[in-house]
Amino acid sequence: MKKVSILAFAVGALLVSCQKSAGDKTTTTSEQEVAVQTGATYTVEKASSTLTWKGYHKGGFDPRFGTLQTEGTLSVANDEITGGSFVIDINSLATDEKSVDPAKSGGKTAADLDGHLKNADFFESEKYPTAKFEITAVSAFDSTKDKSVIEGATNIVSGNLTIKDKTVNVTFPAKVTIAGETVNLQSQFTINRQDWGLTYGTEGDPKDWMISQEVDITLDINAKK
Q1: Dihedral, CA atoms, 201, 205, 207, 208, nearest 10 degrees?
Q2: How confident is the model at residue 209 (pLDDT cuts 50, 70, 90)?
Q3: Are 135 and 44 in contact (CB under 8 A)?
Q4: d(CA 112, CA 93)
């Protein structure tokens, strides 16, 4: 009876710790023509903008999360975004220390994970120090058919996301706020890392299997005229 209780507790704890990806599901396609940036140019304010990532182990448990720095521009005409381009600094990748407990990870720290993600197992930051996102289309969010985890979503954004030497067009909902001299873009979406060839080891490698293919990306981008 005692063994049954212990097993039930362990299963219950695992279920509690399991978390599903929290972002909007994206649609992907091949590389598309980049939108011409017309209208006024707004420059991303690096200090007040955030790009947060969250990855999971298989089953959604024991998430790891952190930040990346980005810079770039957005273009606005008639109170609508017409285009934009962002450069993501891969070497700025920083894992939040709260997401890594050395006592539970064999002594590994957040800094260890940073090095692991930047080396040839994933991003190869020495060879590919930046990633890029270029807007290809922006349309209105239709609440009668479009769904989003972002409250008050206003637009559907599509863009070419280039990581290492692979470009994939990604579409996701966003909330865009334009107020005078500033533009704010918020989004929370999920991508499949293997679309960009981000695998750990060879295909089917047990080490890679233990890491979920899904990665959540949260954007809070502020740009100023």
Answers
A1: 70
A2: low
A3: no
A4: 12
Q: How many CB atoms lie within 10 A of CB 99?
A: 16
What is the pLDDT confidence band of residue 89, given thresholds at 50, 70 and 90?
very high
60-65: long-range pairs with CB below 8 Å, 24+: 60/18, 60/19, 60/20, 60/21, 60/212, 61/14, 61/17, 61/18, 61/19, 62/17, 62/104, 63/19, 63/99, 64/95, 64/99, 64/100, 64/113, 65/95, 65/96, 65/99
Q: List, in order, residues 6 or more apart from 119 with CB less than 8 Å away.
A: 125
Could you tell me the two tokens for 127?
């060879």
Three-state SS for 72-116 is EEEEEECCEEEEEEEEEEEEEEEECHHHCCCCCCCCCCHHHHHHH
Among candidate residues 124, 64, 44, the one with its CA nearest the CA of residue 90: 124
Q: Which two tokens stand for residue 23?
A: 């972002």
* The pairing of beta strand 155-163 with beta strand 130-140: antiparallel
pTM: 0.87
pLDDT of 179 above 60: yes
Determine if residue 48 is left, alpha or beta; phi over 0 gives left, psi from -120 to 50 gives alpha, anything else beta: alpha
Of 26-30, 36-40, 83-87, 197-201, the range with the lowest mean pLDDT is: 197-201
What's the Cα-to-Cα distance from 6 to each of 13, 18, 92, 114, rounded to whole Å? 11, 18, 43, 36
Reference 168, options 193, 148, 186, 202; nearest CA is 193
The phi, psi pair for 194, rounded to 5°, reads -70, -15
